[in-house]
Specification:
Blueprint lengths: L3 E7 L2 E6 L11 E6 L7 H17 L4 E6 L8 H9 L4 E5 L22 H8 L7 H14 L1 E17 L14 E4 L3 H9 L3 E4 L5 H7 L4 E5 H6 L8 E3 L5 E9 H5 L3 H36 L1 E3 L3 H9 L1 H7 L6 H10 L3 H10 L3
Parallel strand pairs: 3-4, 3-5, 7-8, 7-9, 10-12
Antiparallel strand pairs: 1-2, 5-11, 6-9, 6-10, 6-11
Helix pairs in contact: 1-9, 5-11, 11-13
Length: 353
């Protein structure tokens, strides 16, 4: 059995050792190509290479052969989804933000301060578990709105922080005039604008060069990606605003999934179920190491509670501008289950609910 045998942190990056698969492939002409734009140092890449691909082969009794392409060799972010929809690859990955190019289903994940903890988010996103009602809703909407089959939706680096190359940022007004890179999601665009910055949609694969040239001056991403992509070299000012959560999503064309033989569907479903929580373990290890890197090589500002309240105060107004792109009953249930009735009151007062 293929297993992730050991996870170690070395040279500031994640390395995962996997056991070799016994025997030879007995693929019966079914080959699945998995592609992710993430580099070798990003946890989701390891999930593709060392967890998804080998276990799909194993759980299909090696009737499926897999090919994994990574590090932008075939696609990056939303292009991986586009290629999956076109049948150019079989399984791709994208952040929720870049899925915004295909529909509104995942925009809810970007609503600021919707999730209080990553543990809660992982629980309700677990498609294979009874508590994962929200993940099931996302899967249904992905099929209806995007013609995509959602295998898994997981945390990718925890909550976002603001990074910039201009100055230390403590409160939203300090962002005035700073060009912050955003994804293709209108949710993130509106939130960054509400905080006073200038949102600039910009491709992830070219972000380091964009920051070097000054086309963009910062971004709103988790510590994990800042450290592993060495963005702190060009954006040394980091502010732990929280609020935004990154989810990484693994998808197939619904048509492609539905056309697979039953044994292949069973293998893929089983792997996706296991990968949900195992990927989070890998992700948290990477985040812990990333924080250590940033604390030694950049300047992290951790706002006081009154300052955090200022960041959160912009949330209801940005929700209002995006009303109609999320389901009120869904977000209300998520907030109620977290005991956040006060925030619900603020949203209702602003007209967001």
């Amino acid at each position: 059995m293929v297993k992730i045998m050991k996870m170690i942190l070395a040279s500031g990056l994640i390395a995962i050792m996997a056991a070799a698969v016994p025997g030879q492939s007995q693929a019966e002409g079914l080959k699945l190509q998995l592609a992710t734009g993430y580099g070798a140092k990003i946890p989701m890449n390891h999930v593709f290479k060392y967890l998804l691909a080998p276990r799909i082969e194993e759980y299909s009794d090696y009737r499926i052969e897999t090919d994994v392409q990574q590090e932008n060799k075939l696609c990056s972010e939303h292009k991986c989804v586009e290629q999956a929809k076109l049948g150019q690859i079989d399984i791709g990955s994208s952040s929720a933000g870049n899925l915004g190019a295909f529909g509104q289903a995942f925009d809810t994940n970007f609503l600021p301060f919707l999730f209080g903890t990553d543990a809660f988010a992982m629980k309700v996103l677990d498609i294979s578990h009874s508590d994962g009602w929200y993940g099931k809703e996302l899967a249904q909407r992905a099929r209806e709105e995007m013609e995509l089959h959602l295998l898994m939706s997981v945390m990718g680096g925890g909550f976002r922080s603001l990074e910039n190359s201009v100055r230390e940022v403590r409160v939203p007004k300090d962002l005035k005039g700073i060009k912050i890179r955003v994804t293709k999601s209108p949710v993130e665009f509106t939130m960054i604008k509400a905080w006073g910055a200038t949102p600039v949609p910009y491709d992830w694969g070219q972000l380091y060069e964009g920051l070097q040239s000054g086309v963009v001056q910062g971004m709103y991403i988790p510590h994990l990606y800042t450290a592993l992509r060495k963005f702190h070299e060009v954006t040394p000012f980091v502010t732990e605003t929280g609020g935004g959560m990154v989810t990484l999503n693994v998808v197939m064309s619904a048509k492609r999934y539905d056309g697979l033989p039953d044994y292949a569907k069973a293998a893929i479903d089983r792997v996706a179920s296991e990968a949900h929580w195992e990927s989070w373990t890998v992700d948290r290890m990477g985040t812990q190491k990333a924080i250590a890197i940033l604390e030694s090589q950049a300047k992290i500002y951790r706002p006081t509670q009154p300052e955090l309240d200022l960041w959160a105060a912009a949330a209801p107004s940005s929700w209002t501008k995006l009303k109609g792109r999320y389901r009120p009953e869904t977000v209300t249930r998520l907030l109620v289950e977290q005991g956040r009735e006060d925030f619900i009151g603020q949203l209702k007062k602003a007209g967001a609910l």
